[in-house]
Amino acid sequence: MRSILVTVVFVLLATVGQGQTPTPDQPEATPAPSQPPSGTGSYEYDRDGRRDPFLDLLAGISASGLPAESVDGVGGLLTMELSVRGVLLSEGAYVAMVQAPNNRTYTVRNGDTLLDGQIKSVTAEGLVILQDVTDPLSLVKQREVYRRLRSLEDPN
């Protein structure tokens, strides 16, 4: 009798140590997978308003700190890359001919957009450009940059 009692106690302790079996109205809790299911090989990140920590922070940014865009024409040029080659009077307004670093020449007017600013005005002496300031600590968000005719810059 004693051996049967010891066996029953042993069986009861073994079932309590493993946890309770779920009842029909309580589903069994399954732990959340910490890795993707084997065979898929992909991982999906749930953002919840945060940036993906697995993406490169510097992807898509050029050396100047501006977004790396491949815009053709004047819209893809920086203010400091322009060299004013000439100013023309066309239909009562000044038009400037500027040269890019790749030796291409473009015609710009008031209001044309550059990669880092906008042409405020074209005068007989050159260009006035409103350049966007990319320094996050600066209180000034735009500054005026004067690009003069090359003949007026260099007396040579």
Report on this structure.
There is one protein chain. This protein is α+β, with helices and mostly antiparallel strands and 156 residues long. The chain has a domain at 74-153: SH3 type barrels, CATH 2.30.30.830. It is 13% helix and 26% strand. It has 2 helices and 7 strands, in the order αβββββββα. The chain has helices at 2-18, 150-153; strands at residues 83-90, 93-99, 105-108, 113-114, 117-122, 126-132, 142-148. It has a 4-stranded antiparallel beta sheet. Strands 1-2-3 form a 3-stranded antiparallel beta sheet, with no helix packed on it. The mean pLDDT is 77.
Structure summary, number of beta strands: 7
Helix content: 10-25%
CATH classification class of one domain: Mainly Beta
- Spans of at least 5 consecutive residues with low confidence: none
CATH A-level architecture of one domain? Roll
- Taking Cα atoms only, what radius of gyration do you get, to the nearest Å? 35 Å
* Number of H/I helices: 2
Based on secondary structure, the structural category is alpha+beta
CATH topology call of one domain: SH3 type barrels
Strand order of the largest sheet: 4-5-6-7
Shape: rod-shaped
